[in-house]
Amino acid sequence: MAVDGPKKKAVHFGAGNIGRGFVACFLHNSGYEVVFADVVDSLIDKINSSPSYKVIEVGSEGTTENTITNYRAINSKTHEEDLINEIATAEVVTCSVGPNILKFIAPVIAKGIDRRSSDDAPLHVIACENAIGATDTLAKHIKDPRNTAPERLQDHHLRARYANSAIDRIVPAQDPNAGLDVTLEKFFEWVVDKTPFQDVGIPSIEGINWVDNLAPFIERKLYTVNTGHATAAYHGYNRRKRTVYDALQDKAIMAEVRGALMETKNLIVSKHEFEEDDQAAYVEKIIKRIGNPHLEDAVER
Questions:
Q1: All residues at 6 or more sequence positions from 170 whose CB lies less than 8 Å from its CB, including other chains
Q2: Are 87 and 76 in contact (CB under 8 A)?
Q3: Residues 6+ apart with CB under 8 A from 193
Q4: Which family does it belong to (predicted)?
Q5: 157 and 23, same structural domain?
Q6: Is 221 a catalytic residue?
Q7: Is 160 helix (H, G, I), strand (E, B) or coil?
Q8: Per the residue annotation, which of 9, 111, 221, 241 is the catalytic one?
Q9: Could you tell me if 109 and 122 are in contact, meaning their C-beta atoms sit under 8 angstroms apart?
Q10: Global pTM?
């Protein structure tokens, strides 16, 4: 069961590179109008004055471009009432603001949810952060008595549902002259727990892998992609390498990366019962990804 319709709207908090280049791209390709919420005046002005921007995917097999249209931006700092109305009439709310910022976006989301009618389909809320249980964290802040009156919690589930997710895509530092355009790798993974949505309709969003048990995918990603990336970058920085690609050309650094990922492979296989051969192949794919020479991924990032 999918949430479809001629006019679908998603509100996305965080109009930075991940928001524009990853999440909004998939929402756009799935037929949603995207309303960005941010606090950076210059970025909001640029978004509202630009009818389109490009998402450029690079890899060894070539480069592809997506043109993104049908979006707007609202300053959540100065136009809160407008943002509340957008949330109250949206199908989906997503965010890529950083785990520490979730508590700051929760109050306005709570107000938008409270304004929704219980007769409408619930709002689908998905936090897209590098953190375990980020949507649960956001939901906890939204349901805090300071943001939602306790008497409104009894039927809150009729107005909003919350699903945790795991996202995986390398978005390097961008050319300062790129404008709104975003360059990123071709590979992506966006895994979302479908169980909170099953009785009210799973949103039709291209690219999401809907699963019943998210935990294995989150930990596999954090302890393979992030661990491998960080290991290469830390050792690369210490050895004065410029990019992660440069770092991985150093045999000593590559050995450190493989050593770290061998330890995490054993943990992941033991804990989550992934096949050892499958996890070994995943490790090789990740090493190739983080060493993508087309990304210009500086070790400092």
A1: 184, 185, 187, 229, 289, 290, 292, 295, 297
A2: no
A3: 163, 164, 165, 210, 211, 212, 213, 214
A4: Belongs to the mannitol dehydrogenase family.
A5: yes
A6: yes
A7: strand
A8: 221
A9: no
A10: 0.87
